[in-house]
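Journal club side-thread
Mid-discussion, someone asked how the predicted structure for our own chain would compare to the paper's figures. Pasting it here so we can look after the session.
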Amino acid sequence: MTKTLITGANKGLGFETARRLLAAGHTVYVGARDPERGMRAAERLGARFVRLNVTDDVSVAAAVETIEAEGGLDVLVNNAGVEPRQADGGFVLPAATTADDVRSVFETNVFGMVRVLHAFLPLLRRSANPVVVNVSSGLGHAPALADPAAPEHFYPGLAYPSSKAAVNMLTVQYAKAFGDIRINAADPGFTATDLNHNQGTQTVEEGAEVIVRLARIDADGPTGTFQNAAGVLPW
């Protein structure tokens, strides 16, 4: 049975991805920072809980030990992410954004992804069909943000899109480095979740579609791609 870890899976896209992969026959680990929320989500789903804070080396190492002891890992979905917003849900504008603000977003969205992927590489490479899905965003696509006619152009913030652009580049480089692992980036689209104060225009069911699809690819599937629900996107 395919063993899958999803980071940030106690709610939103991570929770819906876990639900869909469980239905497809995966054994799913719900990774979450908060034990109470994580265990509650795992119980609701019929999944396994593993405490995992992507910004903490000790937490990640402990999660590796737990999952290794229970048989290893086949699929890693790097879903945990943050987006800076004002208390009222408004955007944090460039004039108000400091280096520390950007660093805090990168700590989760970029360094956290690297930390988790690096730690789980030995387990993934023992799998007969290892797969990694890095949850990115269309906001990480520079041509779209630069095009006044593109829907993404409206987004004013600095930290979130630049972090997702980094996720895209990391996906390319990891895919080149590890040809034995299918590694792709997913753009779930503008999905209503707590991340964006539920301002998105899609449901989590719609947003999770591409994540689930990429998590279920086989050894002949694509690698080093950026995809949304409609298919492959240009980098």
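Post-session note: The chain has seven helices and eight strands.
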